[in-house]
Specification:
Structural class: alpha/beta
Strand content: 15-25%
CATH class of the largest domain: Alpha Beta
Radius of gyration: 22 Å
Number of domains: 2
CATH topology of the largest domain: TIM Barrel
Number of strands: 18
Shape: globular
Number of helices: 16
Helix content: 25-40%
């Protein structure tokens, strides 16, 4: 990817409230008279002072101690919170572009890849977990001078099953290097992931979509072997699961996180949570399994059938103009057109997705109201769909969760401390505490009271660098 040059804005240290652009390395930052809202706190800390030295939070104090030579931000009326964690992304993909289209349009692709990290930051996401990542993806991402933190899971996929079934054999080693089969045992691929620096393992239980429902899936013994090996390395095991059978086997295999909600019920005509699905959710709750609803996957599929989608002004904040224009071209509409062939009409597609969205919302609401462990993830992008734009997709997921009955406080915990704990990175991020990485947001409102607070983002702080969101908007 092309190196990303971002202007970094920090308040001046003269005590006058003036701001200046800093393009150099991060230095001491001092935020005064701010209200700290952090998920481990019973109550906010009011009129606090926070000092950041380099990439680390050094001081969190109530009141204002004597001034030193720090860059000062006046935090009156602002709320300092941890940066958001998206626990389900795929950064090897450009939303809406297949690899052959990217190769055919290198300038458009370069502009898109340069914008992707900026778009995540523009919506407050300072840590991302790529669930099908590789060391190459990590190194390419980290080569950029300013970006959200990158962590990755290795994708332990059954060779020939989902998602390898649609990947040409010549490209499988590059795209899904941690496959297992009769030759490569689940134990060996987890060992390779761990040696490569993965923090988690993701596997898949997917029999197929639409007319294709005969894909091979891992056995319960396979899944238990993956889980035991992952646990030995302190790596959580996630499973791609969106149907009832998959959620049931997740419990049997002692999986730690399901990477999708329960969308596809055994009775696809049901309009209320059936007994079998309710029982599956109760078992997941009792087992303490983390639950990523990823509702925006379904909304994004429905949005493919909205003829006015590309006219949404918010897209211009996160997608370069050249890529937006390509989306509207016949070539850019090819994936949308191919998806449409599976339906008799656009109206039928919308009705089907509305029904599945209702299932997903009902399951998510049940988890949220019965003590389930919600985690935040968007599956950005869930496929070659332009309806999964980076950053903006996260805001839409937040909105979807609240519409499904999740409270703003639950969303806040799911996207901060609970995600950090689930992925084993809570010693680094997830709260506003001394010694942690300075991945923080300054908001104009309290996000535990209203999700509109995320729309009042004043500054993003990523590893101690203070960035004005205006500097992150696509040009």
């Amino acid at each position: 990817m092309r190196a990303l040059a971002l202007a970094v804005l920090a308040a001046c240290g003269c005590g006058c409230g003036c701001d200046s652009i800093d393009r150099g390395p991060p230095i001491g930052v001092r935020i005064e008279h701010v209200t700290i809202v952090s998920p481990e706190l019973a109550q906010p800390i009011v009129d606090a002072t926070v000092q950041i030295d380099g990439e680390t939070i050094m001081t969190v104090l109530p009141g204002m101690p004597p001034r030193r030579a720090w860059r000062v931000i006046d935090g009156r009326g602002l709320f300092l919170v941890p940066g958001l964690i998206d626990g389900h992304v795929h950064l090897g993909l450009i939303a809406g572009m297949l690899p052959d289209a990217e190769a055919a349009h290198p300038e458009i692709a370069r502009a898109a890849r340069a914008q992707i990290p900026r778009s995540f930051l523009a919506y407050g996401f300072t840590t991302l977990v790529d669930l099908t990542g590789t060391p190459g993806d990590r190194d390419q991402w980290n080569a950029q001078p300013l970006h959200p933190d990158f962590e990755f899971c290795g994708a332990a996929a059954l060779d020939g099953g989902y998602p390898t079934n649609d990947i040409p054999p010549a490209f499988r080693d590059a795209i899904v290097p941690y496959r297992f089969d009769a030759t490569h045992a689940p134990t060996s691929v987890v060992q390779r992931m761990h040696n490569d620096g993965a923090i988690c393992v993701k596997t898949f239980f997917e029999r197929g979509f639409g007319a294709r429902r005969d894909l091979p899936v891992p056995t319960l013994d396979d899944l238990r072997e993956l889980e035991a090996t992952a646990r030995a390395y302190d790596m959580p095991l996630l499973i791609h699961a969106n149907a009832t059978e998959a959620h049931e086997i997740a419990v049997a295999a002692n999986v730690q996180i399901v990477a999708h909600g329960l969308w596809n019920w055994t009775d696809d005509r049901a309009t209320a949570l059936p007994d079998r699905e309710r029982a599956a959710l109760d078992r997941e709750i009792a087992a303490g399994i983390g639950w990523e609803p990823t509702l925006q996957v379904l909304h994004a599929l429905r949005d493919l059938f909205d003829p006015a989608y590309l006219d949404n002004a918010e897209l211009a904040r996160v997608v370069p103009k050249s890529l937006l224009a390509w989306y509207a071209s016949p070539e850019g509409q090819a994936v949308r057109d191919d998806t449409a062939r599976g339906f008799a009409s656009a109206e039928q597609a919308r009705q089907i997705f509305d029904h599945v969205i209702a299932n997903a919302a009902a399951s998510t609401s049940y988890i949220a109201h019965h003590g389930g462990q919600l985690l935040f993830g968007t599956d950005t992008p869930s496929g070659p769909f332009y309806t999964n734009p980076p950053g903006l997709n996260g805001w839409r997921e937040i909105r979807d969760l609240v519409a499904a009955g999740v409270t703003p406080a639950q969303v806040f915990r799911a996207a901060t401390l609970d995600n950090a704990r689930a992925f084993g990175i809570d010693k680094l991020v997830g709260t506003v505490e001394v010694g942690k990485r300075a991945n923080l947001l300054l908001l104009g409102a309290d996000p535990t009271k209203s999700i509109d607070a995320y729309r009042a983002l004043r500054y993003v702080i990523v590893r101690g660098r203070v960035v004005d969101p205006v500097e992150l908007v696509a040009e």
